[in-house]
Predict the structure.
Amino acid sequence: MDATAPDCALRPDASGQPTLYLSGDWTEGQPTPAPSRLQDMLARIEPPGPVALDLSGIGDWDSQLPAFCLRWMNLCRSRGIDCERRRHGSSLDDLLDLATATPPREARPRSAGWLSAAAIRRNLHEIGEQVQESLAFVGDATVACATCMMPGSSMRWSDLKLYCAQAGPGALPIITLTSILVGMILAYLGAVQLKEFGAEVYVADLVGIGMLREMGALMTAVVMAGRTGAAYAAQIGTMQSNDEIDALTTLGLSPMEFLVAPRLLALALMMPLLTIYANVLGMLGGAIVAGGMGISPLAYLSELVTVLAPGHFMVGLSKSLLFAVLIAIAGCRAGMSAGRSSAGVGDATTEAVVTAVVYLIVADAGMNILFQQVGV
């Protein structure tokens, strides 16, 4: 039996309602009506009102027929015209019901540029919320650390010892490498300029002051942000995804005291010691470069002693203590707010490192301005 070509016609039914009648065999290889023909049919409906779709004249069909019906219904919807589908009494009805069960997703309005007033307002609002949440977390962490000194606290002192070992001795290899290299870099950069004036011996002053006041504390903090801060975020974030933090709350234990306080205290105890270690190794790295320039170890040490003032030393230690608190806050806060999935843990780890580095740069700039104003 020869297949009948598919066709469509828009005409009124017995009640006068505009109806699209489909007929023929809608199978592969048969030429289907062009989409422009449907648009012309809809344009002739005046005034635009509800239309019907009649499938009683359909013979054989495959996927071409449902696709054509959906195109017609979507076109009617785009024109604001209601389309009534008359049942065919076959599996075609079930297929169209399934295809139209979920309404089509409406196209989102194109967002304004990032320099628009709405975008700037939205970004400022988000920044304000993040600052507010950060300050609230800092307050909770401060209260938790103070509570840990009282009887009945949820913090376990064995955890504090473990975190001190992880943040202190466990970080010595990477701190050793970075500190020696930073000292050598400082010495080399200073030596290139001082050599032009015949003042190579003052490279010891540059390395000593640079390590004590700035590079020792800052480079140690950057390393610890990528090492320990990320570890804090991953550990607490994994506990969040496994509902362990909710279990602690159910047992009556404070997550801030049990998880955050020992990590914060451990890093605050270890960072000043690591900074002192980094300062010594940085000066040793500068001595290596100075020796290559012909400066004797005795001359380097004699010049270095003249700049080892207590003021420079205390500036670096005060920075290291503040940096430790900021790194712990960034890592623990990212972990506590992590999503309950593996992707959430990864995002929390990235957020912890990025946030900690931003905190370090801002805090370092602020402390340098403060020390300059007070003359330290």
